[in-house]
Every structure is written in structure tokens, then in C-alpha cells.
Amino acid sequence: MNPIRHLAVSVVAAAPAERVFELMTDWPRHRDWMFLTDAEVVHGDGHGPGSHLAAFTGLGGLGFLDTMEITHWDPPHEVRVRHLGRVVRGHGAFRVVPEGPERCRITWEERLELPLGVLGEIGWVFARPVAVALLTWSLNRLAHLAAHPCP
Fold it and tell me: In 3-state terms, what secondary structure has residue 92?
């Protein structure tokens, strides 16, 4: 069995939880806030358990595909997924916790199965800080977009 590694980042948004959750789960808009990632619904409506998503992270054809299944849907608070891909496997969650009518905390959590045994463990030492920085950057971008919606 591959080792499991936990990763979680949180930011505060000056926006209602409902607006954040709606933007966060508008899968085609992920490119607007998630670092170099395009996402699409490939099965179901994208808004409930059993729906499948595909997210490509990269530039041009260089990158990786993250396929996932929504396993839990609780708007405007939480969506959980199971990563099914060759590169990314494990479980992820987005959580939105209201901290007032116009403020909420957004958390992105991953429990990832590392591939390649010892090589995966060594790689994680270098990949983890980069992943934390990119997830934090992405959540800050989401918070900004939710706080400043387009008219």
C-alpha cells in the first residue's frame, strides 16, 4: 500500500460562504482561480455524489490529468472527492465555514497516496512546500474573485 500524506491550507474570504461555494464548484471557472488548471464535468451534473470531474493542470500538453468522483456534496459547506487518476490518488475536500454574513474560511484538504515507494517519499519532501504554496495562491485568488464579483 502507498503511504498517505495529508495536506491542508486555509484562507479567509471577505465574501459570503454561499458565493464562495458557488464559485468554487463552478468547475469550468477553475482556470479563473486554480493555478494552471482547467476542470470539466465528464459524468453527471457536477453537483452531487457520483458526478465525475476531470482537471488538467499544466501548460499546453505538458502536465497531468486529475480524474475524480464527487463523494459528498453539502452546499454551501463542503464538497469531497476521490481522486482516481494515475498521478493523483486519494481524497480531497473543499470546506467553507461562515465567519459572519460577509466572511468565511475556505479550506482545501488532500489525503494523497504517494506513488513510487521510497522515491515518492523523497519526492514529497520537495513537492509538499510547492503544493502548499500553489494551493494557498489558488485559494487566495478564489477569495479575491468571490469578494469582487463581476457585475
Answer: strand
Rounded distance between C-alpha atoms, residue 142 and residue 38, angstroms: 14
Select the CATH number that applies to the domain covering 4-147 from these four: 3.20.20.70, 3.30.530.20, 3.40.630.30, 3.30.70.1150.
Answer: 3.30.530.20
- Contacts made by residues 79-82, CB under 8 angstroms, sequence distance 24+: 79/21, 79/24, 79/25, 81/53
The tens digit of pLDDT for each residue in 27-85 reads: 999 999 999 999 999 999 999 999 999 999 999 889 999 999 999 999 999 999 999 98
| Spatial CA neighbour of 75 closest among 21, 23, 14, 27 | 21
Q: What's the predicted TM-score (pTM) here?
A: 0.93
